[in-house]
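Backbone-to-sequence.
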């Protein structure tokens, strides 16, 4: 099998060296080349023909946004993973890059002095994304961590959807709340779904997207520019209203609870679940206890976060939709739900908004 060729674009010599060391240690990846700025990167892409580009957001001469814009003119499908600092400026630029066609992003190491920690962080976050975007067929999806619940096998085998059968005795309920979970590839998937929903949606929407702090607020602000719905980064104690979307802030779990006769948000810094905070399982679990008709939608993402919570929602009379493999960047989270037989429908991304609207309007008997 041919190795994945990566072009590293970063003005910092230390970062280029660290990224190179991490990638070269993986037997499936090789370095196609390096570039210290956008202008040189654009010149080298046709020379080295990379399978993937890692692109620093902030560089002299031509920054990451300008470089990405030029790359997309000639290479619309080349995977480009942005490298961004965990700062306000870095978050704003990263969200801008995603809106301009960046494939994904990875947080730039903040403390390169601690080499071992930096290498471990890059290995855990960058390599799985490179493999997810650059491999096709059975090896396209990155390996999943071992877990108790059914999920994509560590060997790379894909989950096999089971025939849907409603678990538990509860009949399906009319939809009163939509909960969405997403991870790898999620920002672009969520943008697609939310921008297609009507502004007068008669139910609230709560979302967990695996993202760091600051990034979720910038993501919500960007979505507000393109969506008819009102998008918020959720706040502790905030009332949850129909026609509004609430995104769990990075670093906090989002729960929903009844308070004073109304639905409110509760944010916690409880331990991560599935190595995530926010975690979809936390949101889904809280939604399953509300006594409402809940529609859970599981979009592209690695791992199986949301699987346990989806079971609880289904047992309480809720419904589950999963994104299909063909339109997912990584069919981990939705694939786990499909393999467990929880998804009443497994749908292409572009049809999910219509399916949500249909179920909000009336219950669909299956």
């Amino acid at each position: 099998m041919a190795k994945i060729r990566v072009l590293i674009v970063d003005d910092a010599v230390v970062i280029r060296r660290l990224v190179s060391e991490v990638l070269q240690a993986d037997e499936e990846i090789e370095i196609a080349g390096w570039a210290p700025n956008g202008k040189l990167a654009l010149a080298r892409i046709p020379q080295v023909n990379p399978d993937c580009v890692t692109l620093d957001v902030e560089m002299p001469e031509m920054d990451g946004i300008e470089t990405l814009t030029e790359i997309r003119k000639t290479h619309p499908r080349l995977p480009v993973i942005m490298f961004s600092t965990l700062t306000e400026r870095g978050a704003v630029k990263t969200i801008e890059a995603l809106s301009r066609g960046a494939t994904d992003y990875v947080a730039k190491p903040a403390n390169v002095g601690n080499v071992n920690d930096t290498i471990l962080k890059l290995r855990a976050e960058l390599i799985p994304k490179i493999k997810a975007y650059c491999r096709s067929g059975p090896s396209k999806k990155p390996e999943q961590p071992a877990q108790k619940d059914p999920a994509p096998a560590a060997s790379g085998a894909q989950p096999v959807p089971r025939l849907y059968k409603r678990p538990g005795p509860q009949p399906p309920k009319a939809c009163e709340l939509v909960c969405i979970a997403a991870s790898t590839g999620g920002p672009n998937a969520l943008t697609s779904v939310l921008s297609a929903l009507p502004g007068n949606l008669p139910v609230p929407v709560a979302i967990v997207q695996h993202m760091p702090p600051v990034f979720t607020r910038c993501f919500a602000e960007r979505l507000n520019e393109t969506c008819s719905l009102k998008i918020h980064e959720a706040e502790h104690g905030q009332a949850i209203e129909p026609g509004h979307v609430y995104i769990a802030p990075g670093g906090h779990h989002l729960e929903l609870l009844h308070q004073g006769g109304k639905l409110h948000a509760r944010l916690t810094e409880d331990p991560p679940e599935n190595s995530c905070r926010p975690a979809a399982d936390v949101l889904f679990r809280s939604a399953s206890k509300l006594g409402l008709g809940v529609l859970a939608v599981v979009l592209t993402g690695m791992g199986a976060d949301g699987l346990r919570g989806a079971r609880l929602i289904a047992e309480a009379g809720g419904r589950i939709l999963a994104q299909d493999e063909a339109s997912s960047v990584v069919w981990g989270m939705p694939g786990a739900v499909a393999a467990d037989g929880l998804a009443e429908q497994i749908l292409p991304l572009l049809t999910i908004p219509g399916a949500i609207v249909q179920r909000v309007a009336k219950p669909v008997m299956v």
